[in-house]
Amino acid sequence: MSFIATAPSSAPKTITNSEFWPDIDLAKLRDAMRLDGTVTNERLEHAVINAALQANSDLKDWRIGQQILGFEGLEQVPAEQINGQSIYLQLYLRAVYCVAKANLIERYSDFDSTAKGLKAGEVLSDSVDDLRRDARFAIRDMLGESHVTVELI
Hints:
mainly alpha; two-stranded antiparallel ribbon; globular
C-alpha cells in the first residue's frame, strides 16, 4: 500500500449563481463530497458551473412558477425545514454537488491512463452512475415527481 500526500486546496471560493438560485460554496462542497486538494479550485469551479447550469435548466419551469407566485429566491419558497434549512435548498445543492462530482470523476479517468488507473476508472463508473441518479432524484423530488418513469410500448 502506498501513501500519496495530496496538496491542500487553495483558498475557498464561492460560485455566484443566478438571482433565484443559491451561490455554491466550494469549501462546503469539498467537505460534503470528500474532495481533497488533488481537485484544483479551477477544475472544481468548472465542474460546479456546469452542474449548476444543468440543474438550473432542469428546474427552469419550476423556478418560473415560483417567481410568478412572488418568490424571488429559492430560500423564500415555503418548504419543510430539516436541520434549519429548506428541503428545496438541500435538494438543489445535492443535485449540483452530485453532478459536479460525477463530472470530476469522469474527467479524472483521463488523468491516469495506466492499467491501474483504467481499473480504478471502471470501479468509479458505478459511482458516476450513482451520483447522476442521486442528482436526478433530487431534481424530481423538487418537481414533485416520482423517481420512476414507465412508458408502455
